[in-house]
Design goal:
mainly beta; 2,3-Dihydroxybiphenyl 1,2-Dioxygenase, domain 1; five-stranded mixed β-sheet; 13 strands; 9% helix
Amino acid sequence: MDIDHIFIFTDDNGKVADELVDFGLTEGSNRIHVGQGTTNRKFYFDNFFFEILWVHDETELKSERTMPTGLWQRAEFKSNRFSPFGLCIVNADETEKLFEKAFKYQPDYFPQGLEIDILKNEHQPDLPWTFRLPFKGQKHYENEPTKHLNGISVLTNAIFEYQSIAQDTFPDHFKNQDNIQFIKSTRHWLNLVFDNRKQGKKKVFEKLSLTIEY
């Protein structure tokens, strides 16, 4: 399975993304998720992107349409201990088993009939909110910047740290995946490995619970 993108919820209106810019990442476009109550700042790479996500309209986030997604629980990660991470898997035939019991979400910002498949993991809140978009295959973002001052280019591994919980069958779907891993830990943390660590460098972003190795 391949990663389309990853989000990290924050509670400072996205200001923490400035640390990523200072680190040498080139910022891409941003958008408001109309009707969902969230907005973002994004960073694109050769094979995926990640977004810093935050709430701009709590009424929309907790509306009749959006609240059942469980996204609001991720936004309140500091008070409820839910993971702040979201993992979007590329929609491909091999993902059918993973999403066979997914919750269907029709966002306002997609045309009617284009639904997002969501695994809320609400009974395993240490694991990321996992989803796939209705579009098949890896999207290409030709108008977004993918060149960065620090030379980072290709995501080669995403490692999610999660606390030991009773029903952790979800990670079993990824046991044979080289690029997505789940390891038990004492914290919520995300480790992104780029270019197989060819530069031998590492940067820790405490406010994002994120380590970047490259």
